[in-house]
Design brief:
Layout lengths: L4 H9 L7 H6 L5 H21 L3 H12 L8 H13 L9 H27 L8 H11 L2 E5 L4 E4 L13 H15 L7 H9 L2 H15 L1 H4 L4 E6 L5 H8 L7 H4 L1 H10 L2 E7 L5 E11 L2 E6 L12 H8 L5 H23 L7 H7 L15 H7 L4 H9 L6 E2 L12 E3 L2 E2 L14 E3 L2 E2 L14 E2 L2 E3 L18 E3 L7 H14 L1
Parallel strand pairs: 7-8, 8-10, 9-11, 10-12, 11-13, 13-14
Antiparallel strand pairs: 1-2, 3-4, 4-5, 5-6
């Protein structure tokens, strides 16, 4: 390779480089490639001195000031987007106060610094001594211009002063490929991959880097087609560096892999599980599934497919793993419920007069079971939709009955003509079941807290909330439909609906 070929390449890509104040100050003002070479030597000396005197932090601060997002540049649209994500995942209408925004901005900046550090540390380390400074400069300048990889468009977006994403992850293998093939192009040697050769001649780091990563991914497809792997557990409160280093730079797209701060927060909240499959060296280093816990409950499950969904061949792996968790069925239901609710909510948002199907209405009005989400409260979207609809008309249509057979008032629930009572039915004064006729469906709680002897009482076949029978002293004459499966507050049956059913069966046998 002839002298200054690399610098000549830089001048071709960054045409303003030779006219920048720093290059003019460093160079002699003669040959432009030689001036850039002199500047590269200066950069190398500064980096080496920083490493020798443990002053790399000062160099990083310079880059932070230049490339890290400023607090005032974080767009309001980012917070709106986060609110929508929270809504879609069932956390309700989350409002970002100024205090919450400030904390979020601090985390954005922290993650950007951490991701930028990884590039600075890598290029300053002995691991990259094989690369000339001009190549490191080319890659670094290309990297700081990239936002994130848009899988739909199959390319990197451009980074702007308002980009909130961390800097892209380092793929060391891809960088090595870029260097090897770029040297061939600069030396006018044969390159087997004509598409890559064409990209290298154009000099677009964004396109070259994306192409090399994709090419490597295609090579590794044989490994990712396999579901053979191992689970690794990271205990709550353990060293977050271990988790971060195991998954960082692996292209998962997980926020835990993007910044040490996030990994720290996640391990403060609970255990973390990662499923690894084999790499080309037959070592289990390829992260494919992540399960994050909050205390003893599953908070989220993420894969490496589009939008962090699970790959199809990983679904069985997750299904098997979930058997270890006590809340597995509840979590599966949460996922399904949030997907259905998001679908209905989006459809309704686009057209508030849209006709929903019977199945969608049964789901929305919780006529069979509660809608479960990931928040602490009932998902706000349910009431947001229902407030603007004719509730009685919807429920009557869903249950194939008359509107008169649907009530929204708990006091009317005991009218013998009612099929469905929407809302809680709390009646404190009822002590006798004589003449008491309940609907077959109660979408809410049923409180019969003062009834002691229920002879002749027939319970609804569906109660989506909690059944309160606090004063019950006997189950004689109580009829419980086999389909009823709800929460129970009844000391006599140890607050277990199945125990109450069994007690009723034994009473019937005694008769």
């Amino acid at each position: 390779m002839k002298k200054y070929t690399g610098e000549e390449f830089l001048n071709k890509i960054y045409k303003d480089l030779v006219n920048s104040e720093i290059v003019k100050h460093t160079g002699k003002g003669g040959n432009k490639n030689e001036d850039v070479h002199t500047y590269m030597e200066r950069l190398e000396r500064i980096t080496n001195k920083s490493m020798e005197h443990d002053k790399l932090s000062l160099l990083k601060k310079f880059y932070y000031d230049k490339y890290i997002i400023k607090p005032e540049n974080v767009p309001e649209s980012y917070f709106k987007g986060q609110e929508q994500i929270a809504l879609d995942r069932g956390y309700g209408h989350v409002h970002y106060t100024n205090e919450i925004k400030q904390k979020e901005i601090e985390q954005i900046i922290s993650e950007q610094k951490a991701s930028l550090d990884s590039w600075i540390d890598y290029f300053a380390s002995t691991d990259t001594e094989m690369y000339p400074t001009w190549f490191k400069y080319y890659c670094f300048q290309g990297m700081v211009r990239l936002g994130y990889f848009d899988k739909k468009e199959d390319k990197y977006t451009k980074r702007t002063e308002s980009t909130v994403k961390p800097f892209i992850e380092i793929n060391r293998e891809a960088l090595a490929m870029v260097y090897d093939e770029l040297i061939k192009v600069l030396n006018k040697e044969h390159v087997d991959d004509k598409k890559l050769e064409e990209l290298l001649k154009s000099g677009s780091f964004s396109k070259i880097y994306a192409y090399c990563i994709k090419k490597l991914d295609n090579v590794k497809k044989d490994n990712t087609n396999s579901d053979e792997g191992i689970w690794k557990k990271y205990l709550q409160g353990s060293d977050p560096n271990v988790l971060f280093n195991d998954i960082h730079g692996k292209g998962t797209g997980w926020c835990t892999a993007g910044g040490l701060e996030t990994a720290t927060q996640h391990l403060e909240g609970g255990d973390f599980y990662v499923y690894f499959t084999k790499d080309e060296s037959e070592k289990y280093t390829c992260p494919r599934i992540a399960i994050r816990m909050e205390d003893k409950q599953i908070a989220e499950i993420r894969g490496i497919a589009e939008e962090q969904n699970l790959e199809s061949n990983m679904e069985k792996v997750v299904e098997k793993k979930l058997e270890e968790f006590p809340d597995k069925d509840k979590y599966k239901k949460k996922i399904k419920d949030m997907e259905v609710l998001t679908y209905i909510y989006t459809k309704w948002k686009n057209n508030k007069n849209i006709k929903l199907s019977k199945e969608e209405l049964v789901f929305l009005y919780e006529l069979k079971e509660d809608i479960l989400g990931f928040g602490y409260e009932r998902d706000d979207r349910i009431n947001e939709i229902i407030r603007e609809r004719n509730i009685k008309k919807d429920i009557a249509y869903a249950l194939c009955c008359e509107e008169e057979q649907v009530t929204l008032c708990g006091e009317e629930a005991f009218n013998g003509n009612i099929i469905c009572s929407y809302g809680d039915v709390w009646e404190y004064g009822i002590k006798s079941v004589e003449g008491l006729s309940l609907p077959s469906i109660i979408s809410g709680d049923l409180l019969l807290g003062e009834i002691t002897f229920p002879k002749g009482l027939v319970l609804p076949r569906i109660i989506t909330g909690t059944l309160y029978l606090d004063s019950l002293e006997s189950t004689e004459g109580l009829t419980i439909p086999e389909s009823l499966n709800c929460k129970l507050e009844c000391p006599l049956a140890n607050n277990d609906i199945n125990v109450l059913k069994q007690m009723c069966k034994e009473n019937n046998k005694t008769k």
